[in-house]
Each structure stands twice: as structure tokens, then as C-alpha cells.
């Protein structure tokens, strides 16, 4: 039995952040992982998906610029894009991830970890044995999530793609059907169309794509998709999937009677917590769902406050950057630092073209909370900085203002390459900066950040 200060189960970004910060603070740390160190984000999520998205974005940007557009004479090379993806994910080998933890003195244990008792974790080892770890201070769960498969008649796991299959693809299908128009479904829809799929269809049960964001965001993404030849179906669900031959095409039946035939179907309808098999029942918690936590990432209902849950497995914000933040926060609490509760301000980017970049509350969410809301909008292409970038830059920028306090509570930017505008909005919302103070922050000319000036002018400053 090994006795150690902190045991972290799960070596994705959230777990890595918690383990590294605790180790840097002088605590002894054990990091337990049964799969790849680096987690979903590095091997099947953020990094490979953006590697597949990037070539199409570059070509689209060049096509908007007269002079550069005329230089484009060839087609996108999907195989080269796949090769770059493989390089970025290290060929799905985590050997390069381990030295950084070894240098910090972190004990790495390969295998599935299971809570056996208060502060006790058993790890099943490759030789069939069990290694027992005991935490003097805390156990941190950072086990992430896995794709959810909806209850559709005829739909079977292994028959269709999830995000891991899509981002690790080696050959393009001619026809692709995407079920789900959230950020994963939307990103992969456009990426595969631009990589060379002949026919791409996306089906979203809600009335629009990206339903969690401002309504104009989903509509503008839809317009872009349809302009590129993507078939977008909203307000309809898939009711059945049929495959006549084992290796043959699949046919999906929609709720309105339409049928869509595809060589592959990507299911992107949500995520489920990876908490089954963690032994939560041994400490009185229910396995299989998200672990409820307080504002300092401590699992509720666990006497002594020794169990923490960070990242996707707590269900608060299924985003890599938020998981890393939560890992750092939990580590600080474990080390006895006096830290404020976790922020509820969540920045998010959907890497479609146009990009949808948002932080804080949508107008609807703000009104549902009873805030005195005032909103202002401006066209992304209405500033000179957008004209410099090329022809046909479109999109909408919107601020949601608490009109009593005169501070931002939400912001959305839609347009090509808008992600770098988002952090300024995040700082403004988290810092509760008065609009009069933001008016003193002068955007450089000619940049797209001048939309800030237009928005504040629209508010009346």
C-alpha cells in the first residue's frame, strides 16, 4: 500500500492540471490513468478536430481575398491533413506526455482506479494484481465523459461513428450523415464537407443549429453550411437506422418520413459521465452520473470533504479550458489556499466558419434570471478591419448588458476567425467592468476588434 498526499484519477487536461499544481506546491501526487495520458481532448477532441478544420479555414480565408484567391489552383489534400493530425496527437502514443510528470515527482500508475473506502483507491494493474493507494489529503476524480448514444430504433454502438471515430478517420466517406447540430456535430459537418465528402447532411432535433447559443448564431452557421452544399435539417429527429449489409450503407428515417442514406453516420448528441466502475457506491454516491460538487469542486455528500471532481465528470461545463481551471482551483483548495468559488462565466468557441464565440449569458438566459437586460448588436463586417481581411465577411456581434449596473453579462461574436476577441469579453464580464471603463479601451485600427467601439456606440456611450 502506497500512502500519498493526493490521488488523481484521470489524466486528461483537468486531471493533469490538478496533479501538476499539487506537485508544484510540494505535495506528493499519484496520477492514475487506464488509457492515454492527455485524455479525450488531446487524442480525440480539441486537437485532432481543429487539425481537420484548419485546412478548410485557410482555403476559405484565401478565397475571400482578391489576388490570393486567383493563386488557388488545386484541391485540399485530405491525406496531408490526416498526416498533420497524426503528428499533433503523437500517433496516439502518450510516451511523450509522461516525462513532464516524472520531473515533478508525480507517481504515475497505469490502470483503472476504483475507490475502495474513504481516501483509498485500488488500481488494477496489467499483471492482474491490485495496487492500493491511500490519500492523506484528497482524491480527485477527473475521468471525463464519453459519447452518448441515443435510443434510436436500429442504432447500435460500433455500427456508427462517435467523435473518436470521426477525428481518427483514415479514409473519407463519400456520404456522411451527422446526427446532432451542437458544437461537435457542427464542426465535423463542415470539416468533412471541406475535406472532400461529396454529400454531408446534418440533422438536429431542435429548431436550429447550436441551440444553446443566440438564435442568430445557428442561423448564420446554417446559411454558411448550405452555401457550401451541406444539407441542413432542423426540427426533425432521426427515428430509425437500417443497414442491410454488414459493410453496406446505412439509411436513416426521419420523423417527417424522409430517408437519408450515408456511408457513415456520426452521432454527436451529447456526453455521459465516465463514473461507472469508480466505486462511488462505496462512499454513498450513485455511480454512472455526473458528480455533484460545490463551488470549490468538493463532491457533495462526502463527509470530511476529501473527494473532489473536476472537468467533464462534474457536468458543470464540458469544455477543456474549464476543466483545467477547475483542476487548478481544486489543487489550491487542497493545498489550503483561500480561493473564491468557481466562476460561472464560461467562454466557448464553436470552430465553424463563421466561428461562434460566446461567453456568459445569452439574452434569453439573462431574461430568465430576471436581469434588467438591454442588448446591442453590430455587423461583424461593418468595420474596416473586416474589409481588410477580405470580401464577404459577415456575422453578428452582440452584447448583453445588465442595464441597472451598466456591466456586461454576456457577449457573442460570429464571423471568421473571431476567437481572439473572446478573451477581452471574458475579462470584462468576470471583472464586472463598467461600460464607461470599456469605452476607454481603444481598439486599434484597422482591426475587427473595432466592433467593440461600434457596440458601445450603439449602447449610447
TrEMBL record:
Record carries keyword Disulfide bond: yes
UniProt keyword annotation of Flavoprotein present: yes
Necessary cofactors: FAD
InterPro entries: FAD/NAD-bd_sf, FAD/NAD-binding_dom, FAD/NAD-linked_Rdtase_dimer_sf, Pyr_nuc-diS_OxRdtase, Pyr_nucl-diS_OxRdtase_dimer, Pyr_OxRdtase_I_AS
Family of the protein in this entry: Belongs to the class-I pyridine nucleotide-disulfide oxidoreductase family.
PANTHER family with a match to the protein in the record: MERCURIC REDUCTASE
Protein name: NAD(P)/FAD-dependent oxidoreductase
Amino acid at each position: 500500500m502506497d500512502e500519498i498526499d493526493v490521488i488523481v484519477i484521470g489524466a486528461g487536461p483537468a486531471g493533469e492540471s490538478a496533479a501538476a499544481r499539487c506537485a508544484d506546491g510540494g505535495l506528493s501526487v499519484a496520477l492514475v490513468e487506464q488509457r492515454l495520458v492527455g485524455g479525450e481532448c488531446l487524442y480525440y477532441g480539441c486537437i485532432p478536430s481543429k487539425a481537420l478544420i484548419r485546412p478548410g479555414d485557410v482555403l476559405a480565408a484565401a478565397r475571400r481575398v482578391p489576388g490570393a484567391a486567383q493563386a488557388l489552383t488545386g484541391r485540399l489534400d485530405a491525406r496531408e491533413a490526416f498526416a498533420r493530425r497524426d503528428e499533433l496527437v503523437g500517433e496516439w502514443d502518450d510516451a511523450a506526455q509522461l516525462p513532464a510528470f516524472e520531473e515533478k515527482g508525480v507517481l504515475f500508475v497505469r490502470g483503472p482506479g476504483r475507490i475502495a473506502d474513504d481516501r483509498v483507491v485500488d488500481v488494477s494493474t496489467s499483471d492482474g494484481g491490485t495496487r492500493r493507494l491511500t490519500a492523506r489529503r484528497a482524491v480527485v476524480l477527473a475521468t471525463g465523459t464519453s459519447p452518448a448514444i441515443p435510443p434510436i430504433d436500429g442504432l447500435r454502438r460500433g455500427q456508427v461513428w462517435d467523435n473518436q471515430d470521426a477525428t481518427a478517420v483514415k479514409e473519407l466517406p463519400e456520404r456522411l450523415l451527422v446526427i446532432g447540430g451542437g458544437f461537435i456535430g457542427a464542426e465535423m459537418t463542415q470539416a468533412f464537407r471541406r475535406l472532400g465528402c461529396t454529400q454531408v447532411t446534418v440533422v438536429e432535433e431542435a429548431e436550429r443549429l447550436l441551440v444553446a447559443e443566440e438564435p442568430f448564431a445557428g442561423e448564420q452557421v446554417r446559411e454558411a453550411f448550405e452555401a457550401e452544399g451541406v444539407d441542413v435539417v432542423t426540427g426533425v429527429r432521426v427515428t430509425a437506422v437500417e443497414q442491410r449489409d454488414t459493410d453496406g450503407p446505412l439509411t436513416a428515417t426521419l420523423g417527417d418520413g424522409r430517408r437519408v442514406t450515408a456511408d457513415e453516420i456520426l452521432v454527436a448528441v451529447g456526453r455521459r459521465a465516465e463514473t461507472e466502475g469508480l466505486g462511488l457506491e462505496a462512499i454513498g454516491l450513485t455511480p454512472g452520473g455526473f458528480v455533484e460538487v460545490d463551488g470549490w469542486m468538493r463532491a457533495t455528500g462526502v463527509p470530511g470533504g476529501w473527494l473532489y471532481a473536476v472537468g467533464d465528470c462534474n457536468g458543470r461545463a464540458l469544455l477543456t479550458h474549464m476543466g483545467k481551471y477547475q483542476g487548478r482551483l481544486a489543487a489550491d483548495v487542497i493545498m489550503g489556499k483561500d480561493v473564491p468559488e468557481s466562476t460561472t462565466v464560461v467562454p466557448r468557441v464553436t470552430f465553424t466558419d463563421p466561428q461562434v464565440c460566446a461567453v456568459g449569458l445569452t439574452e434569453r438566459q439573462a431574461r430568465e434570471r430576471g436581469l434588467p437586460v438591454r442588448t446591442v448588436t453590430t455587423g461583424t463586417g461593418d468595420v474596416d478591419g473586416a474589409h481588410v481581411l477580405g470580401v464577404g465577411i459577415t456575422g453578428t456581434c452582440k452584447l448583453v448588458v445588465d442595464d441597472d449596473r451598466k456591466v456586461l453579462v454576456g457577449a457573442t461574436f460570429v464571423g471568421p476567425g473571431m476567437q481572439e476577441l473572446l478573451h477581452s469579453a471574458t475579462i470584462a464580464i468576470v471583472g464586472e467592468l463598467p461600460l464607461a471603463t470599456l469605452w476607454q479601451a481603444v481598439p486599434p485600427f484597422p482591426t475587427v476588434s473595432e466592433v467593440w467601439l461600434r457596440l458601445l456606440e450603439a449602447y449610447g456611450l
